[in-house]
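Q: I'm writing a short explainer about Enamine deaminase RidA for a general audience and would like to include a description of its predicted shape. Could you first generate the structure from this sequence?
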Amino acid sequence: MNNNVVSRLDSSGVSRAVGKYTHITKIEPHAAFYTFSGQVGADIDGNFPDEFNQQVNNTFLNISNLLKSIDLTPDHVVKVNIWSTETIDWDYFYNVYDDFFGDPSPSMTIAYVNALGLEEIKLEIEIWAAK
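A: Of course. Here's the predicted structure. Afterward I'll give you a sentence or two in plain language.
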């Protein structure tokens, strides 16, 4: 972590994380809090690849560009919500996720759903951030 606003904390008394996330994320007082609309796997032209892992790549590129557009970095992210219509290849996903967030990772929730906003959307990721 490279900022003085967001802290990812170890927890005790609960089961260990079953994935790449922190159970507790602390936001310091007087921080600006940001919420973002969910980002999907469309490329810059709005096209959706058929291949799920390419949608993973595009989604993280879209999140990166979104953060950069308001001078934030992945270190500012405090919460990640993931919705997927397909089974996630966790080895691939965590490779991309680790490259993006590093360690420790932000708090995370994942849900498998029957459908997202458009038929071609296979993955949607929503983030919250603070600075």
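A: For your explainer, you could say: The first helix runs from residue 52 to 69.
Q: Perfect, that's easy to follow.
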